[in-house]
Amino acid sequence: MKGNPEERAVQLSFYIIENQATVRAAAKEFGISKSTVHKDVSERIKKINPLLYVQVKRVLDTNKSERHIRGGLATKKKYQNLHDMMVQKRVGSEG
Question: Do residues 18 and 26 touch, judged by C-beta distance below 8 A?
Answer without folding.
Answer: no
